[in-house]
Amino acid sequence: xxxxxxxxxxxxxxxxxxxxxxxxxxxxxxxxxxxxxxxxxxxxxxxxxxxxxxxxxxxxxxxxxxxxxxxxxxxxxxxxxxxxxxxxxxxxxxxxxxxxxxxxxxxxxxxxxxxxxxxxxxxxxxxxxxxxxxxxxxxxxxxxxxxxxxxxxxxxxxxxxxxxxxxxxxxxxxxxxxxxxxxxxxxxxxxxxxxxxxxxxxxxxxxxxxxxxxxxxxxxxxxxxxxxxxxxxxxxxxxxxxxxxxxxxxxxxxxxxxxxxxxxxxxxxxxxxxxxxxxxxxxxxxxxxxxxxxxxxxxxxxxxxxxxxxxxxxxxxx
Length: 318
What we know:
Blueprint: H1 4-18, E1 26-28, E2 35-38, H2 42-45, H3 49-65, E3 73-74, H4 76-82, H5 89-93, H6 97-108, E4 119-124, E5 127-132, H7 147-159, H8 164-177, H9 180-183, H10 188-196, H11 203-208, E6 210-213, H12 221-232, H13 235-246, E7 260-261, E8 264-265, E9 268-272, E10 281-283, E11 288-291, H14 297-309
Parallel strand pairs: 2-3, 6-9, 9-11
Antiparallel strand pairs: 1-2, 4-5, 7-8, 10-11
């Protein structure tokens, strides 16, 4: 495709319409109004929805093929499904904190008093129906012995089975341009950057709209070093830091003052936590970074870099 600026604008305008929740194919996640997920009821809104998802996948694949970007950021499970990776409880935290907290409670406590069974309620236009998570699930109580299986099945239902046909159609279109074996080498964060690109992140705006907890304030040496490190990062590392703490590299249209967490507006937050030999950790549903009190700028910068680049290898995100 010639004329790079026209090509870029074409992908931007088309993707803006494709991902518009007004058409019923996608919806905003439970936690904000700027990250998207597939609408499980898209077939009710459009009988030809699977053909549309295949077309959308093809357009996204074409954008990647030509080195262009699409104007839409998705929840992390979307990219993990593209990579055929298992969705975990931690992936739910930044998408639906109420569900996350409920399932976490079940794992940490005896669920027998909750009178749960292996089924969930599905609601469509005010009508609620019971959906078995496994054969005869309505007759199988959740106990300490099987609660891990129950939580895994709920997560699979919440993110995978309800939108499996739509996702398969999207992947079918996408892999017509970009075969799976070419992009499976990436992780979900890298796939997001590949499709949606790097935003120009205003570090000054980011800092102005950051809250602090514990002993930290804007003038604390550790915080001064932190923002110095962020300013020294290239665009990709800034975006990956934002991903690490908030779950997405997307900055709201009106800047960091409009950042949302699981319970509504939630500014970026840095809390003093841990010991200097610890790596930083993140709480994506609260947009919070737990930052240990490091002894030097170089130590802080290196620990932050390690946390960003290896967050799947340790308990760095919850």
